[in-house]
């Protein structure tokens, strides 16, 4: 697969089949994704993988923990200005439209949001932590690592969904995976085979026109 094809094929999948993912495939993807660039070659990502039996145990563990807790960082700025506010609003409306959930159906939207906590049915997941002593440049390194992993997953016939949702369940995840206190949870990622019959997987989020955000000087 050409890189550009992987870029255009990748999307955030929110309905997975229960088809297992082999541990060796995940190991290979992680090794290859670690070729992602990082400033000074710090390689600040710290990854914890759950798959198969450990995913089963995690699904049993999570309901025993607090459902949500205060996040250790702001997922979005407290006051979004344009065009960012509209971008976020639009993709939310488009996602719920694929499910036939209108804006006034708050219960339906909350039910869909809660599916984050079940990894949208995915059989495998990873959690990306970073040393608390790292700064914004290293957080950008995490993004490059995660994007590289997601593109490589497409090449292996897998789908993913990066989930900052897990940043508000950091205590439960830290306890389960055994991450030390000096590591901060950035996000989780659901991994598996996409359900081809799920309407939500048809969502293709829009991108702003090039001239709205790029200038050739």
UniProtKB/TrEMBL annotation:
Residue spans crossing the bilayer: none
SUPFAM superfamilies associated with the record: FMN-dependent nitroreductase-like (SSF55469)
Keyword presence, Oxidoreductase: yes
Occurrences of domain Nitroreductase (ranges): 9-193
GO MF annotations in UniProt: oxidoreductase activity
Keyword Flavoprotein: yes
Gene3D superfamilies with a match to the protein in the record: NADH Oxidase (3.40.109.10)
Keywords: Flavoprotein, FMN, Oxidoreductase
Protein's UniProt name: Unannotated protein
Species the sequence originates in: freshwater metagenome
Lineage: unclassified sequences, metagenomes, ecological metagenomes
